[in-house]
Amino acid sequence: MGSSPCVGQNFCNDIVRCNRLGDTGFVTWLFYPGMLFGSMLSWWGAGRPRPRPHEGTDFCMYDTASGSTEFVSEGFRIPAVCSGRVECIHKDFLGHSVYIRHKLYNDNGRIFFSIYGHVDPLPEIRPGLTVRQGDVFAAVADAGKRDGPMASHLHLSFAWVAENPESRYLTWDTLNDPSVALLVDPLELLQADYRVIDFEPGRQEEPI
Q1: Fewer Cβ close by (within 10 Å): the C or N end of the chain?
Q2: Cβ proximity of 21 and 13 under 8 Å
Q3: Number of structural domains found in the chain
Q4: Helix, strand, or coil here: 202?
Q5: Residue 76 confidence (pLDDT) above 90
Q6: Does the global pTM surpass 0.85?
């Protein structure tokens, strides 16, 4: 695939900084198995199977130095992983999905995209706008917009996208088409510290 994008731990540091998570004693991200890339399980309700593998990673909760678990909530600030151009914004079942195109190519000529699901973009964010690494461009949407219980969270996906006509119409369906996009595990590129914990039905559905 060529050299990996220069994501490293920048995003993890930026998201801690812009949300002042250090004030809460942030230690590490926590994930249920169904929150991870490629999982066939959901992490809400009874944890039933997904219709297709999970396209990214869901950032929803983290551990603190005091041993408590804190949850992401509506308004949690989202920084850009890398500098890039907003390619498109689509409505999703919690908020919006924002697709950002970066000037990073692999050996096959595919271009790197970061995709942020279930967010509310800032009012000035629109297709064609350039954002810089670390700039806050959106916030986590209110999970109450969905029928049925689900905790607010950021869905983050990375993909190498082909330069073809279909890539102009990016959606979650086209991202699942390997002729258009090759999905990448976000945690591998972010080099994030995290722990996977047992799924507890009902816990993630409590008001947060």
Answers
A1: N
A2: no
A3: 1
A4: coil
A5: yes
A6: yes
